[in-house]
Amino acid sequence: MLRLRILAALAILALTAVTPLPAGAESAVPGSREQIKLSFAPIVRQTAPAVVNIYTRRVVKAAASPLLADPFFRQFFGDMMPPGIMQDRVQRSLGSGVIVSADGTVVTNHHVIRDADAITVVLADHREYGARVVGSDDRADLAVLKIDPKGEALPTLPLGDSDALEVGDLVIAIGDPFGVGQTVTSGIVSALARTNVGLSDYRSFIQTDAAINPGNSGGALVDMDGRLVGINTAIYSRNGGGSIGIGFAIPSSLVKAVLSDLAHGGKVVHPWMGASGQPVTPDIAQQLKLPRPVGVLLSQVSKDGPAAKAGLTAGDVIVAVNGREVEDPESLRFRIATLPMGGDAHLTVIRDGAERTIDVHPVPPPEIPPRDTTDIKGDNPLSGATLANLNPALADEVGMNAETGGVVVLRVGRASIAQRLQFRPGDIILRINDRPVASVADAKLAIDRGAGSWRVMLSRQGQTMTLMING
User: Fold this and answer.
1) Are residues 234 and 282 in the same domain?
2) 3-state secondary structure the chain
3) Are residues 388 and 346 in the same domain?
């Protein structure tokens, strides 16, 4: 009892000894019962009705008996085991989405609706609508759906400015975790511009400790002004389970860019600058006499591309786009991807130790050279593979570096010679039997002149390797 009195006295002394805040300061200790009862409820009432549940349905073929496909049995019987009767089975999945305009436009994640045969959108007030896909961008992991409200009023959530967020800002996450019904969680922005997450090709995520769980994907991350600043996308979890306080959301700046593309042509096309490079490491920063290791050191600049026309050259270091700092190649790609098509990018560049501003006019990625997509057949190592010339437009579609150029493996047929030799989509063919391969025409010529043995040099994820194949 005495200890409790002492602790209470110390608490009172601590409160009375608090240094008064400077005049004009916004933060203060609550001074009344009304101030203590502050709540997120007004923001939730305003925003939650625009967050929807998304149910998808997909029909797949499956063996009538699971034993017929069981690897345990197939290791004994192999192909002698009958394939069995195939039946249609329905796969269902659950996610969330956000209504962003009164005409029924809904934004969600691409992975929520991927390969769906039917999509149903359910509002917070239990109204249900069938939805169609207006457009989807797997590289950004965003999809835009459209529902027909048939004249009924729809709640909407306005887009906010994700670039205005700061670490420590309060945010609210709204979605349908585990299918239990709409749920609201709160937290803070714990980090910005996370580029090492690997969730999409345009990696610059908002990190929050607001609880995000399975089923929240596609839901809303809302700021204290009641605006959409992010689309909840993923969580970090050690065991693949629920939230442990590290969640990621796609910034609203990228959502705006995708919505703009779909409104002006029905296809998502990311602006192309025609340059790529590597992150500035501490060693590079020391060699270039930079104040700190930040930015992108350009190593490749496409001839006649926007960057080259603006005067950028290999060796330049890009440190900011439109005043926003660029830390690495992923953040540079994100900043360019969020530009409106036809808009200018004001790049802050360091060249020869001096800082300057260079204006680049990004354009849609061109189809130069033509793809010349070709299925390879016959008795050769690449039989069953589909090859194409890697131009900027194709590179944008498949998520590769356009400046690499060359001949890329787009697909590998099942049970083909190319698959047995372990060729993979994304491989860049460099040489065949010591003949340089710069185009699909070069590859076909080298294959036609092939012999009983083959040497195929390729580049895979930046690593060069040579396959030796005997006939």
Assistant:
1) no
2) CHHHHHHHHHHHHHHHCCCCCCCCCCCCCCCCHHHHCCCCHHHHHHHHHHEEEEEEEEEEEEECCHHHHCHHHHHHHHHHCCCCCEEEEEEEEEEEEEEEECCCEEEECHHHHCCCCEEEEECCCCCEEEEEEEEEECCCCEEEEEECCCCCCCCCCCECCHHHCCCCCEEEEEECHHHCCCEEEEEEEEEEEECCCCCCCCCCEEEECCCCCCCCCCCEEECCCCCEEEEEEEECCCCCCCCCCCEEEEEHHHHHHHHHHHHCCCCCCCCECCEEEEECCHHHHHHCCCCCCCCEEEEEECCCCHHHHHCCCCCCEEEEECCEECCCHHHHHHHHHCCCCCCCEEEEEEECCEEEEEEECCECCCCCCCCCCEECCCCCCCCCEEEEECCHHHHHHHCCCHHHCCEEEEEECCCCHHHHCCCCCCCEEEEECCEECCCHHHHHHHHHCCCCEEEEEEEECCEEEEEEEEC
3) no
Query: Contact, 372 vs 439, CB < 8 A?
Result: yes
CB atoms within 10 A of CB 134: 17
Please tell me whether residues 232 and 303 are part of one structural domain: no
| Domain match, 284 and 223 both | no
Does a structural domain hold residue 81?
A: yes
Residue range 118-143: average pLDDT?
A: 88
Residue 34 lies in a domain: no
| Candidate ranges 90-94, 197-201, 330-334, 338-342; pick with highest mean pLDDT | 330-334
Same domain as 302, residue 219: no
**Per-residue pLDDT reduced to its tens digit, 300-339:** 898 889 999 999 999 999 999 998 888 888 888 888 888 8
What are the tokens at 188?
A: 């803070």
In a domain, 457, yes or no: yes
**Class of residue 401 by CB neighbours under 10 A (exposed 0-12, middle 13-18, buried 19+):** middle
Which one is catalytic: 141, 176, 223, 261? 141
Q: What is the pTM of this model?
A: 0.73
Is 88 labeled as catalytic in the residue annotation? Answer: no
Expressed as residue numbers, the domain containing 59 is 50-147
Please report, for the domain that includes residue 279, its CATH number. Answer: 2.30.42.10
Among residues 96, 136, 162, 217, the one annotated as catalytic is 217
Residue 13 is predicted with a pLDDT of: 37
What are the φ/ψ torsions at residue 2 (nearest 5 degrees)?
-60, -40
State the total domains in the chain: 4
Catalytic residue among 93, 96, 110, 111: 111
111 in active site: yes
